[in-house]
Design a protein that fits this description.
The complex is a heterodimer of chains A (about 260) and B (about 350). With about 260 residues, chain A is an alpha/beta fold. Chain A has helices at about 5-35, 40, 50-75, 95-105, 115-120, 125-130, 150-155; strands spanning about 170-175, 185-190, 200-210, 220-235, 235-250, 255-259. A 5-stranded mixed β-barrel of chain A has the order 1-2-3-5-4. Chain B has about 350 residues and is mainly α. Chain B has helices at about 1-35, 40-45, 50-60, 65-80, 85-95, 100-110, 115-135, 145-160, 170-180, 190-200, 205-240, 245-255, 255-270, 275-280, 290-300, 305-310, 315-340. The chains are: A alpha/beta (about 260), B mainly alpha (about 350).
Chain lengths: ~260, ~350
């Protein structure tokens, strides 16, 4: 037997195993993302059960398929005829690609988005405002219980900033230094997610510091801002602004998105 | 480095969100192929060309397949005597008009439910129109690949002379010997794709065989479609993170170029219709609504991968017609949407 046909033979025995391993690796990758809590960085919690279910299903498929492949290799029986499928890739490439990405997902840790993405997604544009839809309101009497996104939703319904003057605020988010604002202002920002990390978009409110300079608060650091609502004219627009009275650094939350 | 991290997070999130829908799509397409008897379906098809095209477009509800699974089904429908309007309507609409794609699109665009509605209406309308137009061609055989056309001829022969056995009344796998011996002038059935099509219509096989076939089908499609999904997600993530924002905005905010760009992207990326909404989602904040709809309507009908599959049924001329009609209709509908509605 020539060397060429030998290598073909071993490829024919190996390629079913490559499928099995690639599918199993994806099952394990989904499990890892779930158990490590990293899944919350990637998708909206509503789809967590679905994805976990898919992880189990992939493990099951690979186990059953693996058992059949194992049995076929032992008994040397004629396997099912391989179905002719059109494919974009040469045989084996697709599985190798899937396997490679699954390994990357197992090894690497996805990072939450930060200010760079917020700029890319237009944190200072007005289009982000139009994407926030008022949803279910909890008309809480204590305004300091409202999250950042609650404030943006309220503003969407009734945009006049003067209506909120003097109300108490306590919101959490990360810091952005927009170049178009004076140095005593920064934006307290949160990403909102509707489906997966591909569609996160930033919402933010300007924060006014009483004394001096935003440089004391590093870009991308997480803060809890307490203060009162005031109206300021920033960048030619009248905007609802938080007059900060107390700024407390907080650790980056495990679940960095708002819903 | 931050950007590389963001790109990886985005890439992974697209894959993680899409994986369950891909798996469900693959499982369902496999299941229904084995449990729905197409021959009974062909028997109840309306003969009127317009109704036939509409019927074909809606049949996708019974076969939740994405564009990779619909070509073999359309080919089987044609070979089992379905009118051409039904087959073309099915070919174009089935990847979109099915419950799993509705669900996935709804999941992705919960914020903009109008996109789901436009996607359904436009796909249905375009598929019906094109199916209707093709029904004007009385004899479809010149547009088909010789292998499929010969099958259709044999069927018609069998229909006019009932004493001849229908070509599908017995398993062609068992008959293949007679083809090779060449009893008559019949062409030999050596086309592996045709044999596969027969293999797949396994409704009458024992259950264990069907389950085994279902498993193999699932693994195979997961592998093929998963590979395409990985590539598509990588393209989306790269464009999102590394393409300059000004370029994306100038392209994406224009009423006309945004549609053209998204249609081109749809044809190139070849991403499966069960998961393409997640891909489109990453453009939702920068591209016009019409262009997102054009991506979601045009992509499942025509893409590089799909054309490769369609070549196994139609001659190049017919594919060119379908492609041109689909592109023009999608463009005009979504441009109307951009200019007058949204």
């Amino acid at each position: 037997m020539s060397r060429l046909s030998m290598s073909r033979l071993s490829w024919r025995t190996l390629s079913p195993w490559l499928d099995v391993v690639a599918i199993a690796a994806w099952g394990f990758a989904l499990m890892k993302l779930w158990l490590s809590g990293q899944m919350l960085l990637l998708i909206h919690p509503a789809y967590k059960p679905l994805t976990i279910g898919a992880g189990f299903a992939l493990l099951l498929v690979s186990a059953v398929k693996g058992w059949f492949v194992f049995r076929a290799s032992r008994s040397n029986r004629q396997n099912f005829p391989p179905m002719q499928h059109f494919s974009l890739f040469p045989p084996g490439w697709s599985s190798a690609l899937l396997l490679g990405v699954a390994i990357a997902a197992l090894v690497l840790t996805p990072r939450p988005f930060a200010s760079q993405t917020a700029f890319d997604r237009g944190v200072s544009d007005s289009i982000t405002m139009t994407r926030v839809r008022p949803q279910s309101f909890t008309a809480s009497t204590k305004t300091e219980d409202k999250s950042l996104i609650d404030w943006i939703r309220t503003l969407q319904v009734y945009p006049e900033p003067d209506a909120y003057t003097g109300q108490k605020v306590r919101v959490q988010g990360f810091v952005i230094h927009p170049p178009n604002l004076p140095p005593e202002y920064f934006l307290i920002t949160r990403f909102v997610i509707t489906c997966c990390a591909a569609d996160v978009y930033p919402v933010s409110l300007p924060v006014k510091l009483t004394n001096g300079n935003r440089d004391a608060y590093k870009v991308d650091s997480w803060l809890e801002v307490e203060g009162q609502m005031v109206t300021q004219t920033l960048d030619g627009k009248r905007q609802l602004t938080i007059q900060a009275s107390n700024l407390k650094p907080i650790p980056e939350p495990k679940d960095p998105y708002d819903y | 480095m931050t950007q590389l991290n963001s790109a990886f997070t985005l890439f992974l999130s697209l894959l993680v969100e899409a994986m369950p829908f891909l798996l469900i799509g693959v499982l369902f397409s496999g299941l229904l192929q084995f449990f729905v008897d197409e021959r009974k379906l062909v028997a109840i098809m309306p003969k009127n060309p317009f109704l036939g095209a509409l019927f074909g477009s809606c049949v996708g509800f019974l076969f939740p397949v994405c564009e990779c699974g619909n070509v073999p089904v359309a080919r089987r429908l044609l070979m089992q005597g379905a009118p051409v309007s039904v087959a073309i309507g099915f070919l174009l609409a089935a990847p979109t008009i099915n419950p799993i794609v509705f669900w996935a699109t709804w999941t992705a665009f919960r914020d903009q439910p109008e996109i789901v509605v436009y996607r359904i209406i436009f796909s249905l309308t375009i598929a019906t129109i094109i199916g209707w137009i093709f029904s004007a061609q009385a004899d479809i055989r010149p547009l088909l690949q010789p292998g499929v056309a010969a099958f259709v001829s044999r069927r018609q022969e069998a229909a006019t002379r009932p004493e001849l056995p229908s070509p599908l009344s017995t398993s062609p796998l068992l008959q293949s010997g007679t083809y090779f011996l060449g009893q008559s002038a019949k062409p030999m059935n050596t086309n592996p794709a045709e044999l596969e099509a027969e293999l797949m219509s396994a409704v009458n096989k024992p259950l264990s065989y069907r389950l085994r076939l279902l498993l193999d089908n699932t693994v195979q499609e997961m592998r093929e479609l998963g590979g395409v999904l990985v590539l598509g997600s990588a393209i989306a993530a790269t464009l999102q993170v590394f393409a300059p924002r000004e370029l994306i905005l100038s392209l994406g905010q224009d009423q006309v170029t945004s549609i053209l760009a998204m249609m081109l992207l749809a044809a190139v990326v070849s991403i499966c219709s069960t998961v393409d909404s997640f891909f489109a989602l990453s453009f939702a904040s920068t591209f016009t609504t019409g262009s997102l709809v054009s991506f979601l309507v045009f992509g499942p009908m025509i893409d590089l991968k799909g054309v490769g599959l369609m070549i196994s049924v139609f001659r190049a001329r017919a594919i060119f017609y379908i492609f041109g009609l689909a592109a023009l209709l999608t463009f005009s509908f979504t441009l109307f949407l951009n200019l007058y509605i949204s």
